[in-house]
Design a protein that fits this description.
Largest sheet: 8 strands, mixed
Strand order of the largest sheet: 1-2-4-3-5-6-7-8
Distance between the termini: 48 Å
Number of helices: 18
Radius of gyration: 23 Å
Shape: globular
Number of strands: 8
Helix content: 55-70%
CATH topology of the largest domain: Rossmann fold
CATH architecture of the largest domain: 3-Layer(aba) Sandwich
Length: 394
């Protein structure tokens, strides 16, 4: 169990991934530990040397006397990097971890190559809200805030469909030191980085949760608008986007890092990522059928579309996956590609596009692509929904 002795605190950390790869540091949210990243670790570990750590007061790290400050949490990371001989790194943080990442980019810019800011803001919550939470924890322990935290972290649908994941996150939360948790609450309470955003010079990707009650998208947009050149991605999640949408989160991170240094992802890694995305969008049955029909004549074509269509374009952070599906549907209608249209109607459902959104897309196509093309598309869409309903009832 790796523990680094850093001044007044022991920091628990884990190193995973390829030995000689570039270092990507993952920083957890308030109340979580380094295991919050477990769902994305396999997809990233083939590209990077992953450094996860428990923020002080969390997990297996120490919990010295509170209160804490963001400066203190940031210096914990710098001390950990120094202890491990890491001169520069990519940094990805959620919520409190995102605040820590911004502090590092502002105060130690030579240490941060790129910055991924997920579900975070220049200021999170209000002083009164944090003081109330600190008092509740002091009086009744972390159990008093556990249920409310889980409800903010995860959408109702995700909690219902993934009860084990929600239970693991809750267990990590209540296992926190009450003193350490309250100390980090104080650090968030006392942080407002509004006037310092101009100091961030590292390339930045901002990830927002469309249903995040703790950090509304309007606050994420402030980061996007005020950090020069920042990229932006909005996912249909609550507060823990990497947990709810791990594949889309990883795809965005890889696309962002590759856009900064295209050689970052080798061709084998691009193929592996593309195959995962291709299966997630089109379904295993379709991809298995395409793989089974691969031969010496079309193998290079299959490799091409896996690496570049699915391993590069479909993982870019500029558009949501459902938006890409709707755009693809419109293009297939315009080009009269019925087989591809049927495939991407199924894909759009997999990507979360609603029936109303698909209908509106086809109505738009009726005006700009022609009524006969849209008429055929509506017919195919009805067949696809009938197939989906039939499969669901069996």
């Amino acid at each position: 169990m790796p523990l680094a002795e850093l001044n007044d605190v022991r920091i628990h950390y884990e190193f995973d991934g390829i030995e000689c790869g570039p270092v990507l540091v993952l920083s957890n949210s308030l109340g979580a530990n380094l295991h919050m990243w477990d769902r994305i670790l396999p997809a990233l570990s083939g590209h990077f040397r992953i450094l996860r750590y428990d923020t002080r007061g969390h997990g297996e790290s120490g919990a010295p006397a509170a209160p804490y400050t963001l400066d203190l949490l940031g210096r914990d990371v710098l001390s950990l990097l120094d202890a491990l001989g890491i001169a520069r790194c990519h940094f990805c943080g959620v919520s409190l971890g995102g605040l820590t990442g911004m502090w590092l980019a502002m105060h130690a810019p030579k240490r941060i190559e790129t910055l991924i800011l997920s579900n975070t803001a220049v200021r999170i919550g209000t002083a009164d809200g944090w003081n109330d939470r600190i008092c509740r924890v002091d009086e009744a322990g972390i159990e008093a805030v556990a249920e409310g935290s889980i409800e903010r972290w995860l959408t109702p649908r995700f909690r219902q469909e993934n009860p084990e994941c929600a239970a693991e996150l809750r267990a990590a939360l209540v296992a926190c030191s009450a003193q350490g948790y309250a100390g980090c609450c104080a650090a968030i309470r006392d942080t407002d980085l509004t006037s310092q955003l101009h100091l961030i010079r590292a390339p930045v990707l901002v990830v927002a949760g469309a249903f995040d009650p703790a950090v509304p998208t309007s606050q994420s947009r402030i980061l996007h608008e005020r950090i020069q050149g920042a990229a932006y991605l909005e996912l249909p999640t609550a507060h823990l986007s990497p947990v709810e949408r791990p594949l889309e989160f990883v795809g965005a991170v890889l696309a962002f890092l590759c856009s900064q240094e295209p050689s970052r992802m080798n061709e084998n890694a691009r193929y592996d990522t593309g195959m995962k995305v291709r299966r997630a969008v089109l379904g295993d049955a379709h991809v298995d059928s395409a793989q089974a029909s691969t031969n010496s004549f079309n193998a290079e074509f299959q490799d091409l579309i896996t690496r570049y269509a699915w391993g590069e374009i479909w993982i870019r952070p500029g558009l949501t996956r459902s938006t890409r599906s709707l755009l693809t549907i419109a293009m297939m209608v315009a080009l009269h590609h019925s087989d591809e249209l049927r495939m991407h109607l199924h894909a759009a459902v997999n990507n979360g596009a609603t029936q109303d959104e698909i209908k509106e897309t086809l109505l738009q196509c009726a005006i700009y692509c022609g009524v006969p093309a849209a008429n055929h598309a509506f017919k195919l869409a009805q067949e696809v929904y009938a197939e989906i309903d039939s499969a669901a009832s069996t």
